[in-house]
């Protein structure tokens, strides 16, 4: 059926270009350092507060995971699972803050001075 449809539509499918334009519903309030920062630049832009938030979220998640284990033989796996969730969640939170500073959505005086 697919080949008949393609033949009826004029042959092979044409590849579509991926839309890489980032249009924000809200305009940045601060100077834009990089409109679309790559992963490596965003991670390299982590500051001390980002690392502290990451560590705090991870520590709280490990503790909550341990305390949510009702039976003693469930506490270990529950703690590990909570820790993994905390590591990923903390990283995503730090990444969001770092990217927001680079894109001008959060205060970014240090980034503007560093990347000029």
UniProtKB/TrEMBL annotation:
Keyword Transmembrane: yes
Keyword list, A-Z: Membrane, Transmembrane, Transmembrane helix
InterPro entries in alphabetical order: NADH-Q_oxidrdct_subunit, NADH-UbQ_OxRdtase_su21_N
Keyword Transmembrane included in the entry's annotation: yes
Top-level taxon of origin: Eukaryota
Residue ranges occupied by any NADH-ubiquinone oxidoreductase 21kDa subunit N-terminal domain in the UniProt entry: 28-106
Transmembrane segments: 51-70, 76-95
Signal peptide: none
Pfam families: NADH-u_ox-rdase
Protein name as it appears in the record: NADH-ubiquinone oxidoreductase 21kDa subunit N-terminal domain-containing protein
Organism encoding this protein: Musa balbisiana (Banana)
